[in-house]
Write a structure and sequence with these properties.
The chain is of the alpha+beta class and 504 residues long. Helices cover 34% and strands 25% of the residues. The protein contains 17 helices and 19 strands. The protein binds one RNA strand of 76 nucleotides through helix 2, strand 1, strand 2, strand 3 and helix 4.
RNA sequence: GGGCGGUUAGCUCAGUUGGCAGAGCAUCUGACUUUUAAUCAGAGGGUCACAGGUUCGAGUCCUGUACCGCCUACCA
């Protein structure tokens, strides 16, 4: 650090003009005995409350005194009158500095204030000649100096790369972005409220451990130094939560990050937020109610609307109840395909060729069934729907239906072509589970990096007996994409992962 | 992973046939006590993403690299 001291001292020599000016203002303020990163200012009012309270005030009357704090977003100097726009989390309001209302010394201080600075302001509310609700500043304090200039006031920050890499700036400049993340927080909070109201317990299970199971995906690897232990980041919440069920917690859930070492796209971020919940003595019908209940709660209590933005300008109505359609019905309705034909080696190959893809790489019935369904059926699943009666081939973790061993107790809830929820009647038979792990373990030996590891601890837990249990998983980020009409997952994750870039 | 497109001032963007690097906002200087994309007069600000190549001469043409976006494939 000390080696850089010279460089730091001369910082203004080698920086864009606008930053040098701001550094100079900072020094001049300190020379006047004003600390631009100092104590708090007694902010007692929110700007949106001020607007609410005085919004329909008589133009000639003087309003009450308010004390607000926020960021200076614009400054219009007009000789001995200066107007600014001050913005806080939800609101923005005009502030007025007059030479005779703020005093000569304070008025001169305005020369040292730059757009982007954080200000605390106290004064009376009034309405200007042009009818703008304004705070007449009597007293103000610099609460934080902005050493970098803000983006352009009219167009704002548009460059998508800059927005993702500098989300603080994105939120600061673009109110809709700020609102979207406020909404994200409220939605997640409402999910917690709903589940807590049903008597669920929120638990926190380990994010790292020796094994990463509960899904088929490559984990991130990390390392514990003191123990000299290789560790993996979790890819799902499932196995620990079910161990909680074995332990006698009857309704548990977790909302947490999982990490999957896979590609990045508009629908995939390496770390993302999952909700998983498990309820003993429950079945798929209960899980359906809960899945529907979560979406309903969000619509009613947070969005205050059943309508969410559709993919092409229209809207999608999320008012329950949602219809059910079996997996086989979907194939038949949208593709004229019989599920049984997909299990037939000859007929399935014909269907695949007709759809225009080859199945050489993973030539197994499960892969084919899944692929055909997502190609033929999923594009039609715009309105909320439960797809039920999944084939056993693509549902290795669910219990088989007693009346038809080729189908399992499982549903997925689709909205706007997104698979929003996935639910099972959980497999509780430890011997069956052991067999399935063994099969997966064979794949690992053959080099499959995404196969499920043998989890002896989980098996041992199951061997104490797990009651009949319903489980539900929801990808929170994707749910938020659907609810907010976002086309990229990066629009609902505040700080999405970006590749390192020089000079940005 | 594959295909297409983008990268020029702090920000938003122009840049013609290859011929001195442009505008608006922002910044600086000056005027202005009710403006609001304030206005008016002037000024400064550039590694044209990066590395090569062609050329008398490259922001512009060619090759490669990086990052971002869109489409596409897989994963949720």
């Amino acid at each position: 650090m000390n080696d850089n001291e010279q460089e730091v001292l001369n910082i203004t020599d080698d920086m864009p003009e606008q930053m040098a000016v701001r550094h100079k203002h900072l020094e001049e303020l300190r020379a006047l005995g004003i600390e631009p990163y100092g104590d708090r200012f007694p902010v007692t009012d929110k700007i949106c409350d001020v607007r609410q309270k005085y919004g329909d005030m008589e133009p000639d009357k003087a309003g009450g005194e308010v004390s607000i704090g926020g960021r200076l977003m614009a400054l219009r100097t007009h000789g001995k009158a200066v107007f600014g726009d001050l913005a806080d989390q939800e609101g923005k309001i005009q502030i007025y500095f007059g030479l005779d209302t703020v005093g000569k010394d304070n008025f001169n201080l305005l020369k040292l204030i730059d757009i982007g600075d954080l200000l605390g302001v106290k004064g009376e509310v009034f309405i200007t000649r042009r009818g703008e609700l304004t705070v007449m500043v009597r007293e103000f304090k610099i609460l934080g100096k902005a050493l970098r200039p803000l983006p352009e006031k009219w167009h704002g920050l548009k460059d998508i790369e800059l927005r993702y890499r500098n989300r603080h700036l994105d939120m600061l400049m673009n109110q809709d972005v700020r609102e979207r993340f406020i909404l994200r927080s409220r939605l997640i909070s409402a999910i917690r409220g709903y589940l807590d109201g049903l008597g669920f317990l929120e638990v926190e299970t380990p994010a790292m451990g020796m094994l990463a199971g509960g899904a088929l995906a490559r984990p991130f690897l990390t390392h514990h130094n003191a123990l000299d232990l290789p560790l993996k980041m979790r890819i799902a919440l499932e196995l620990h939560l079910k161990r909680c069920i074995v332990g006698g917690l009857e309704k548990v859930y977790e909302i947490g990050k999982v990490f999957r070492n896979e590609g990045i796209s508009t629908k995939h971020n390496p770390e993302f937020t999952m909700l998983e919940l498990y309820r003993s003595h429950a079945d798929l019908t209960d899980m359906m109610e809960i899945a529907q209940g979560i979406v309903s709660t969000l619509c009613e209590k947070v969005l205050c609307s059943w309508e969410v933005p559709g993919t092409d300008g229209g809207t999608v109505n999320l008012k329950p109840p949602y219809p059910k359609m079996t997996f086989a019905e979907g194939l038949k309705k949208y593709g004229g395909i019989e599920l049984s034909d997909l299990r037939d080696p000859v007929k399935s190959k014909e269907i695949a060729e007709k759809l225009g893809f080859n199945i050489e790489r993973k030539d197994n019935p499960g892969y084919l069934i899944d692929k055909v369904f997502s190609m033929v059926v999923e594009p039609h699943l715009v309105n909320p729907v439960f797809i039920v009666d999944y084939p056993v081939e693509i549902s290795p973790l669910a219990r088989k239906k007693p009346e038809d061993g080729s189908l399992v107790y499982r549903f997925e809830m689709f909205i706007k072509n997104f698979e929003i929820a996935n639910a099972f009647s959980e497999l509780a038979d430890p011997v069956d589970q052991h067999e399935r792990f063994k099969a997966q373990h064979e794949l690992i030996k053959k080099g499959d990096t995404e196969a499920h590891p043998m989890d002896e601890d989980y098996l041992a837990a199951l061997e104490y007996g797990m009651p009949p249990t319903g489980g539900l998983g929801m990808g929170i980020d994707r749910l938020l994409m659907v609810l907010t009409g976002s086309s990229s997952i990066r629009d609902v994750i505040i700080f999405p992962l970006m590749k390192p870039a020089d000079q940005v």
